[in-house]
Design brief:
Bound molecules: adenosine monophosphate
Number of helices: 3
CATH topology: HIT family, subunit A
Distance between the termini: 41 Å
Strand content: 15-25%
CATH class: Alpha Beta
Shape: globular
Radius of gyration: 14 Å
CATH superfamily: HIT-like
Number of domains: 1
Order of helices and strands: HEEEHEEH
């Protein structure tokens, strides 16, 4: 399986389609998931091409994990969450739908289930939740 540079996250990285940006550094980029399964659900991706963990380099994995840890603290602080769930899917059989490596970061509250997938969030709600996370990162 090869990397398709026309995947939607590659287009986000090139600025060809918009995203609600939360954070970036030299190696990673973080933005809101447009169909959040919890308030604050965001995605961490490497800036360089990788289809998923099966072809990612150790350096890409290290960079993405470092940012995933940073975002875990930020989303928990932003939403007063008691925990965080990290999800990551590989290939169709593994549940992957977008073929650029990404880690889902989901703030969690005791007793609250994840929402079902596939429901687009209002743009204003997404923007307000994104601002909470950016504020937490800046604090
Ligand atoms: P998966 O590959 O199974 O991890 O799922 C891809 C994820 O990307 C889903 O949670 C979608 O809601 C999310 N997604 C798809 N398109 C966009 C987009 N344009 N901006 C932000 N998130 C997206």
């Amino acid at each position: 399986m090869s990397y398709d540079p026309e995947n939607i996250f590659a287009k986000i990285l090139r600025g060809e389609i918009p995203s609600e940006k939360l954070y970036e550094d030299d190696h990673t980029y973080v933005f809101m998931d447009i169909m959040p399964r919890a308030d604050g659900h965001c995605l961490v991706i490497p800036k360089t091409p990788a289809r998923n963990i099966l072809d990612a380099t150790p350096a890409q994995m290290a960079a993405v994990m470092e940012t995933t840890q940073k975002m875990s603290h930020a989303v928990m602080a932003a939403f007063g969450a008691g925990g965080v769930t990290i999800q990551q899917f590989n290939e169709p059989a593994g549940g992957q739908e977008v073929y650029h490596l990404h880690f889902h970061v989901l703030p969690r509250h005791e007793g609250v289930s994840l929402r079902p997938p596939g429901k687009l969030e209002d743009r204003e709600v997404l923007a307000a939740n994104a601002q909470k996370i950016r504020d937490a990162l800046a604090a």
